Amino acid sequence: MKKVLLFIILLRPVLTNAQRERLGNHEIKTDRKGNIISWYSNEPGKAWSHVVQLVWHFWDTMRTDVNGLPYYMNHQVWRQGIDDPRGIGGDQFSMALSSWRLLYEFTGDERIKQNMTFIIDYYLSHSLSPSNASWPDIPYPYNTLVLSGVYDGDMILGKDFSQPDKAASFAWQLLQFYKMVTPPDFPRGTEKHYLRSAVDIANTLANHVKEGDADNSPLPFKVNAITGETGRLQNNNGNGTEVGLSNYTTNWSSSLELFETLRKMKVGDTIAYKKAFDIILKWMIRYPLQNNKWGPFFEDVPGFSNTQINAITFARYIMMHRQYFPDWNQQVKRIIQWVHQTLGNKTWQKYGVFVTNEQTAYMVPGNSHSSREASTELEYMALTGDTEYLPNAVRELNWATYMVDADGKNRYPHDDYWLTDGYGDYVRHFLRAMAAKPELAPEDENHLLSTTSVVQSIGYTKNIHYTTWDSAGKEVFRLRQRPANIFFDGKIPASNESLQWKALNKGGILVIKRTKNRNVTIDF
Hints:
By secondary structure, the chain is an alpha+beta fold. The protein is built from 14 helices and 23 strands. The strands form 9 sheets. Strands 16-19-22-21 form a 4-stranded antiparallel sheet.
């Protein structure tokens, strides 16, 4: 811990204007040693909190298209004054839901929850395959007619093709959202459609899982939902030459979460979920975890490409479910090392930072991929005490802040303003970083950084009040000052064993452990 605190102190030097090179939307700022700090503040957490809320504001106030939908419901790239001709990114809505849930906990802004409701309700009613299809009731990842308001296919393969891994990630977010908005004692048999839809998607996926091998994952990457035909990959020279079926991807962390959570809730076909879970987990351990074949992910790449997102997302899954991985420490470290060796980018090494390229088919640095790498390395450090990656992780997150302009538009470093990489697949990594190392969170703000449950409501006023889905769990806050009292369901806890306070130079970190309470009030 002394090493961590010392490093944080070293991150607060006087700013220098000696370096005028531009990065993203800003001139690069450095500390006295020439290492990169954020353009907004020399305090990491203050800068990170600021930029993620800028990004949310830009998303929330984005212009409406001629079809009456917000621009982000139709396009994957934002452009000033014109419509980008491409439809949404394949995981665009799931990424947004993932980030907005964490941002709601962080800020208590009810507009975030309203935006989540709108996205889910609209997407569910305009994206699902027919119930009599070969792959029924799963969402399509793309709107082949961009302004149609209907999601009906795949960006490369066209109408009727879906991506099972993206269906799984959306169902997983659906399940999380169901817990946000539904009381845990809601009568069974009358569940809201969010849970029913998550179950429908899980049923379709589980029914199609089969034993895989080195060239075939348990579920395909792209499939015609109507006929069951597997989509064909093309090479990258644009001539349309087929190079095989799209039977392989390693993006199955969300499917594992989905199947396991439904089983724990005792909802749906739990026997089928157990079988599917076991097959996928066994395959992930036997193949990509051994051979580092970590692709593909992106809907707009016609051929195979190894990706950082698949590799690091599974590294996070390993850390969150260590019971399945006896050698989890070394397995996660090997994935991190593979990313550094395969996708590391040293262009800004003179500023004390190396960042992360997107994928082997597009070797350019990404704001979302760099922030994901950094937050995951901080999570690894929190579990192991290994501080090897700490300095670069903080600087990599600082580097990623430069892509956010003062109005919240978020640019890919050498590319466009992607509504995937710059929004849903950006915000969550800064919030996870502060959750992993609360000392890095802003010292003059109050925030919930992490919970083992799902937060249904939270408000930051003169006090903090929040309600969770589970009656037992643990929350971690960074607070400006030590609370005067903590109330569980309106009562002062009988024992201080439920609370842990760690004082810092300003304010501190509060850990709350609940055993049978869903409602907590923090009084100051």
